[in-house]
Amino acid sequence: MKLKPKLLALLAALFALALVAGACGNDDDDSTPAPADSAPADDSTDGGSMDDDEPMDDDEPMDDEPMDDAEPMDDEPMDDAEPMDDDMSLAGTVVNILGPETGAEAEGFLAGFEPLTESTGIEVQYSGTRDATTELNLALEGGNPPDIVIIPQPGRIIQFGESGDAVALPQSLLDNIAGSYDPFWFDLVTTGGQVYGVPNKGDVKSLVWYSPPVFADNGYEIPGTWDELEALVEQIKADGHVPWCIGIGSGDATGWVFTDWMEDMMLRIQGPDVYDQWVSHEIPFNDPRVVEVAEFVGDIWFEDGNVLGGRDLIAATGFRESALPLLDGDCVLHRQANFAGAFFTEAGASLGPDGDINVFYLPTISDEFGTVVLGAGTHAVAFTDKPETMAVMEHIGTAAFANARIMADKGGFLSPNRDHDTSLYSSDFDRGLAEILVSADPFRFDASDLMPGEVGAGEFWRSGTDYVSGSKSAQEFADDTEDAWPSS
Known about the structure:
Elements: H1 5-15, E1 31-34, E2 94-99, H2 103-111, H3 114-120, E3 123-129, H4 132-141, E4 148-151, H5 154-163, H6 171-177, H7 184-187, E5 190-191, E6 194-195, E7 198-204, E8 207-210, H8 212-218, H9 226-238, H10 256-269, H11 272-280, H12 288-302, H13 311-314, E9 334-335, H14 341-346, E10 358-361, E11 373-382, H15 387-396, H16 399-407, H17 428-439, E12 443-445, H18 447-450, H19 453-469, H20 474-483
Parallel strand pairs: 2-3, 2-4, 11-12
Antiparallel strand pairs: 1-3, 4-11, 5-6, 7-11, 8-9, 8-10
C-alpha cells in the first residue's frame, strides 16, 4: 500500500539526510564517578551497552512487566502548570546520578545540566558504569541509593516503583513536561496511577543500512513502501546479488536480533494495539497472529538466496560481523538500530549518502497503522524525594536539557522530547534519526525489554534461535516461549 503523500514526503526527506557519525563506540568496561565539571575517563561513546555482546536495550533480563492498570498521560500539560523558575535557594546542593553512559556520552549527559546549574546552583555528580543495575541493587540493600538512576528497562522501573524504592513523580512536575512527549513514554513507567520515570534518551531500530555506491552502480532506489522493498529484494537477486546481511549471534544473548525483527514486523502486520496485547500477555505468545509474524520473518530469512550464507549461518554469525559485508557488496541490505553506525566507522567506512554506507527507514506495510517506529531508550528514576532531586528530574524532561546536551556534540544521543531543537545536531544522521523519533506515529518500545526476563531475555531468544536454525517450527517456537511465561 502507498503512504499518504504528506507522510511520504516527510520520510523521503529523512531518507536523504546524510549519515556522518556513528551512534555508539567501543565496549570497554569502566566505572568512573565524575562531578558536573568533569566526566569519566573512558573514551567509549557507547553508553547504550552494558555487555560486550549486545546493545544496552537488550542486555539484561526484565524482572517484571508494566501493570495492566497503567494510565496514559495526557498529550498536553495542564493549563495551570507553572515551569520551574530560577531559584537559587537550592544553590550548593548536590544530586548524585548513577547510569550506564560512560566516556563521551557521559560528558554530553553532564553538559545537559549546565543550564540548571547556572539557574539554581545545583551541582550534579554522575557515576557511569556498565554495571549500574548491580551497583543500584547494592546501594538499595545498604539503604543509601543514588538520588537518580538512569535505567534502560521499563519493567525494572515498574518493579522499583511497586517495591517502594523509587519515588513517584509529583503531578506538578509531570504537568510541566508531559506535553513534550509521546504519552507512551510515560505509559511505560506507570503503575498504580503513579509515574516513576522521566524520558532521558531514545534509540531508533526501524532502520535499513545500505551502500550508496552499490545502489548507484545497480540503479537501485530507496524503497518508500513495503511493496517497493519486496520488489527491490527480487531485483537484487535477479542481478546476481544477495539482498540481506543477517546474523543473530551474541554469545549468551544469541537471538535478540530475531526478537527485534519480530517486533518490527508485529507492528507492521498486526498493528500497535495487538503489539501492546502481546507485550502485556493479554494474548498468549502462541496466538496465531504471533505465529503468523514469525512465519513472515522466516519467509524473508529462509528463502534461498535471500541471506548471505543462507539459513544455516544466521545463528552462527555475530550481529556485528553480519553488517560488514555491506562494505564489500557481498550483500545489499542490513536491518539494525542506529548504534550499528559504529560497526562501519570502526571498519574505516565513510558514512552518508555520498559515502560507503547510509541508512533509510524500514517501510511500513499498511498505512492503517501509521508510521510505526520501533525503538528503545532510557528513563531517569528518582530514589530520593529531596527538592533538588525533583528539580534535576524535571530538568531532564525539558528541551533545555536536550538542547544543551546536543550542543555539547558528544554524539550518541537522540532526544524523544518533541520540543527540542533538532537543528542543533551536528550530524545529519543524528538529526534525521531525531526527526524520525519525534515524528513516530506511533512509537513502541522494544517488546523483549518489556516482557518478563525469563521470556524477553530468555526463551524468546533461545527458542527463536532454534526456529532460525531449523530445529523448531514457528508454532513450536511460539508454544515453548508461551510455556516460559511466568504464571500470575
